[in-house]
Design goal:
Length: 168
């Protein structure tokens, strides 16, 4: 089980280069660290749908179409990662007490991005429903073949926390 602890959360951080008006810098929901290296965290809600309600005509065999909110969130994470990589060297990071953070405490090397969205058990529970089976397989294939963004649902996050708390 790959359990890593994220520390030193900074919320609502502008991570890109701003224009001369102080705009156009993407904002990440949370900026944290795993083993002293940067992690970018983008949150949606537990009610945000991962898949479209019905199978579209463009869906291929054995797949289901992702919702716009899901695809847009993935694009947002990739854009944040790109902007952070580009701006890191020249950017000054400020903590919640308005102090500059030492970059030795916020190192970056191909920053990890975590996307937390939806509720797998509510949207497509693992049961004998063929549509839910297809959605589960589509979701897992996408996650396993995505090397830049770790995608986790709120119910999976809850299960990890429950395991940590209740495990002796």
């Amino acid at each position: 089980m790959d359990i890593k602890f994220i520390s030193d959360f900074l919320s609502e951080q502008k991570i890109g280069l701003e224009n001369s008006e102080g705009r156009n810098s993407p904002k990440v929901d949370f900026l944290g660290q795993i083993s002293n290296f940067t992690v970018l965290i983008e949150l949606k809600t537990s009610k945000t749908e991962i898949f479209k309600k019905s199978r579209s005509n463009t869906s291929r065999a054995n797949t289901w179409s992702f919702s716009s909110a899901f695809i847009d969130g993935i694009s947002q994470c990739l854009g944040q990662k790109f902007s952070f990589d580009k701006s890191y060297e020249s950017k000054h990071f400020i903590d919640k007490n308005n102090h500059r953070i030492d970059k030795l405490k916020l190192m970056t090397l191909d920053p990890k991005s975590i996307f937390i969205i939806g509720n797998r058990q509510q949207e497509f529970p693992l049961d004998n429903n063929q549509d839910n089976i297809t959605k589960n397989e589509t979701f897992e294939r996408f996650r396993r073949n995505n090397k830049h963004i770790e995608i986790i649902t709120f119910d999976e996050l809850y299960e990890r926390a429950k395991y940590i708390i209740n495990h002796n």
